[in-house]
rhizopuspepsin
Amino acid sequence: MKYYGTVMIGTPPQAFKIDFDTGSSQFIISSKDCTQCSGTTHYDSSASHTFRANGKPWAITYGDQSHASGFLGHDQILLDNIRVKNQQLALVTSESAGFDDTIDGIMGLAFGKLSRTVGGTRTVFENMMDQGLVERGVFAFYLGKASRGGGGEVMFGGIDLSKVEDEEKVTWTEVTKAKYWQIDIEDVFVDGEVVALDGKGEKKKGKKGGRKMEAIMDTGTTLMIVPEALAESIHEQIPGAQELGTSWALPCDLALSPTSSTSKVELQISNKRFGIPFEDLVREETDIPGVCYSGIQSSTAGFMIIGDVFIKNNYVVFDQEKRRVGIAPLKIGPKPAPEALVEVGVQNAGGADSGEGEEGEDVVQAAGVEWGDGTEEGEVDASWQEQDDTEQRQIDASKQASEDTEVSQTEEEANGDEEEEEEEDESATD
């Protein structure tokens, strides 16, 4: 599955399918000036009278050598009629082949100082906080599985109590490096047995791991990416798993096993375990009949990327103010109707549609909406849609940059000056 949300940009507003990505910090959008760009809708800056160009160029090259470039500008963003003003945009005017053509752009929700390419921009959520649009400096993700009716949501400014029992059920863990949403993983379990780790993913079957492993919580990655030795250690304990070249694969019928919903790969975070059922690890079929790709794949990097395959089995909260990540078991109730998750309307936000009105007018009215679904005042809710990702592909170092933006950026960042990063972290004021 891929997840996207509808975001409006400019005045009058233009609608786009956007990937909400906690693994990057730029707001990247395809420009109408790009004749070869992916996506179905391209942003027309000349049609928005609130757009401001600053003339600065930007460019990025991903780990698979795909690349994009363009220029910077500012415009307003509308999320469920909440207006975020003066948001910096990275407009794409040129890109190489291999980008995802099902989305129009990426909204980065990592820490703004991550962005070297665009000079350390303020992210959309940081601007929401700066402009007083949210009551709390947190946002949270619920990614629906097909078995729960699909759909999902990202909530800005609070925690959706219809998805968790209560906030006391949230397990918090500190962000260890406030550029990415990077946390520590204490241990990895497969079907209740410890399989690894010492900080580099080396196998330590049957005993507690030594050093903690760094991990990045990343909604922009579909899979869970782990060091090579850890990938091997995990798959050794899953019946029928096999290595196919640079990828790991599982029997497709593993999802039909009577124990596929109870057997899990679990991560221990702050002394609590959070898991992925075996049934959710079975991905699309490979070229070999009956053999499917695994939801856990390997990387040469010495850290972990925790993607949607984990996040959709838990409720994940990102606390920008306190620099921490919260994880809670989902409250499973009746299956929601998918269409109920497509549009969550704000009751008459006053002037937000036109982009005009008095300063702060739409802010006050929209921020005080009572949602009637466990949401509290000061929370903004952007709904998600999902679509099947049936394209067969080999999950390796050459996969599409649009599907692995955060992994390639993470590897680039990991090769940087560690001492410089630590100094920046200590002095940051997010």
User: Anything to note?
Assistant: The radius of gyration is 21 Å. Residues 405-414 form the longest helix (10 residues).
